[in-house]
Amino acid sequence: MQTSDLKKAGLKATLPRMKILNFLESSRVRHMSAEEVYKAMLEAGEDVGLATIYRVLTQFETAGLVTRHHFEEGHSVFELNLGEHHDHIVCVKCGHIEEFFDPTIEERQHKIAEEKGFDMTDHALYIYGICAQCKKEA
User: CB of 74 within 8 A of CB of 37?
Assistant: First the structure.
């Protein structure tokens, strides 16, 4: 994403927005809370306040640049919206998140919506469990 993507989304390309957008694009971690973005940016030497990060992430969400997920009660994480649908499996012990796409699951969800008389406009699937690493440590 670039300055033009911000402008298309109706946002000015301010320095904090560009710093946060560049950080999200370059981060190996795809799902982060605002606090995690703040801490990681501080560690990288970027001076952006936590309130600014919250505000910019909310603006990005409204503009469709990021997606907010509520995997745990009261805990939101954000991921850059790359335009590709996928679902999530979340570890209930450590919070590790894996993305996946399964055409059979997608087809079944559409069929269920159709059988119930719905025109599906959007959907999200979250699976909760215990990841392999946490099982090893138990």
Answer: no
pLDDT in tens, 4-47: 778 888 889 899 999 999 999 999 999 999 999 999 999 999 98
Decide yes or no: CATH 1.10.760.10 for domain 3-80. Answer: no
Look at domain 87-137 and name its CATH class.
alpha beta
90, 126 Cβ separation under 8 angstroms? yes
Nearest by Cα to 38 from 25, 24, 26, 28: 24
DSSP-based three-state secondary structure for 80: strand
* pTM of the predicted model as reported, rounded to 2 decimal places: 0.83
* pLDDT surpasses 60 at 55: yes
- The secondary element (H helix, E strand) that includes residue 23 is helix 15-26
Nearest CA to 58 out of 124, 123, 122, 9 is that of 9
Domain boundaries, the chain: 3-80, 87-137
The percentage of the chain sitting over the pLDDT mark of 90, rounded to a whole number, equals 78
